[in-house]
Amino acid sequence: MLTEAIVPDARGDSELMSEDREPQIELSRADGKTVVRLSGAWTTRRARQLQSRIDAAFADIGRPDHLEFDLGNVVALDTVGAWMLVRRRDAFGEGVETSIVGASPAQAALLSHVNSVEAHPIERPAKLPWLLRPFDGLGHMSFNALDDLVTIHAVLGRTLAAVGATLAFRAPFRFAAVVNQFDLIALRAVPIVVLISVVVGAIITQQSILQLNNFGVAIYVVDLAAILMLREVGLLLAAIMIAGRSGSAITAELGSMRMREELDALSVMGVDPYQVLILPRMLALLIGLPFLTFIGALSGLAGAAIVALIYGGIPLDIFLDRLQGALNVRTLMVGLIKAPFMAVIIGLVAVNEGFKVAGSSESLGRHTTASVVRAIFLVIVADGLFAMFFAAIGF
Question: Which pairs with CB-CB distance under 8 Å and at least 24 residues apart come from 304-308?
Fold first, then answer.
């Protein structure tokens, strides 16, 4: 049976301060027992030397009846050294009587603590049959989606509370912060939105002309491009660009502030993070996305006019005349009505993912990616629901 004893000596703790001496192990046999005399520093800094010397010293020791570890010359001992000593002692298993002598009071206390810690093997969860694994993943996704829905509602509630506090003059309206965020979110995104909208408008028009020419009605490409750009494509392009550009930036900013505990610092100072950080960004999104939607729709129509002239032979004056007949206020309003809802979706997802960031760069990258993907997915789904709703009411 494995037995163990730790016998402290009367040395003071001052001897534990020196870590300059290399660890040594000497084996001797006396009075029917094997004595292992340890010396030097048994610390983390010497862990590699300790392991190699332990392996070399105990390679040919066999299986003694009694094993005594003498720590009389050990000048420094920390948790790693104590753990390596206890692990080597326990490696002999049952039937070997062991004792530890010569330890200082601090060393004896450390060894007793290390000895009392039991190893708990990691229990691996049972693997599901391969037929059930897709359903297991679906279940995890469902619970995560439900959790996100709850936290997004919490973010929405806190944001509305911040709006109410501002309207009730219990909190200042940070006009400068809103203007700054509008510049970052909307104005600086104008070039990329214009470029993408022109290209997409040109592609839609070019492909439509190729098909409509077969029926001799290429002039109707103006109606098609106008309705698509104003009702659907202009908004979708602007929303996707904002989700990828500004949504990710909001998540990264809030996530990095959470990692550095700046959000907690604001709360301790009595400053509501939703008043200072969230509300200006949400207002900038609410104003900026309709603005970019309108700019994107006009840019798409400009690209359509250029391609209609080149591929369809439709002069600009005829294009504009046909465009005036194809458009009405209702067509323009459809895209502008949907834009604020898309802005709220992008903002809520970005803020929610930013607040979920833990204390690592890996977590920040993962949630920033999730913010972009989920925002784009929800924007497309919401646009489809709006399209069905407007079609049902004849708008």
Answer: 304/201, 304/202, 304/204, 304/205, 304/221, 304/222, 304/225, 304/226, 304/229, 306/202, 307/201, 307/202, 307/205, 307/206, 307/209, 308/205, 308/209, 308/221, 308/222, 308/225
pLDDT digits (tens, 9 = 90+) for 65-86: 777 888 888 888 888 888 888 8
Q: For residues 101 and 68, what is the distance between their CA atoms, to the nearest angstrom?
A: 7
Q: What is the DSSP-derived secondary structure letter of residue 58?
A: T
Q: Considering only CA atoms, which of 378, 345, 344, 371 is closest in space to residue 356?
A: 371
pLDDT tens string 338-394: 999 999 999 999 999 999 888 788 888 899 999 999 999 999 999 999 989 988 888
Measured CA to CA, the distance from residue 264 to residue 361 in angstroms comes to: 19
Assess contact for 270 and 167: CB atoms under 8 A: no
How far, CA to CA in Å, does 50 sit from each of 22, 45, 78, 96? 9, 10, 12, 23
Q: Please report the DSSP string for 122-168 in residue order.
A: --PPPPPPTTTHHHHHHHHHHHHHHHHHHHHHHHHHHHHHHHHHHHT
Question: Distance between CA atoms of 385 and 393, rounded to whole angstroms?
Answer: 13
pTM higher than the cut 0.70: no
* Tokens representing residue 385 in the block: 């629901």
Residue count of the chain: 395
Query: How many CA within 13 A on the CB side of residue 132?
Result: 5
User: DSSP assignment of 264-329, as one string?
Assistant: HHHHHTT--HIIIIIHHHHHHHHHHHHHHHHHHHHHHHHHHHHHHHHHS---HHHHHHHHHHH--H
User: For residue 121, what are the CA distances in angstroms to 85, 118, 124, 133?
Assistant: 20, 10, 9, 25
Q: Answer positive or negative: Cα dihedral of 7, 12, 17, 22.
A: negative
Distance CA(336)–CA(330), nearest Å, equals 10
Domains of the chain: 6-116 (3.30.750.24), 154-393 (no CATH)
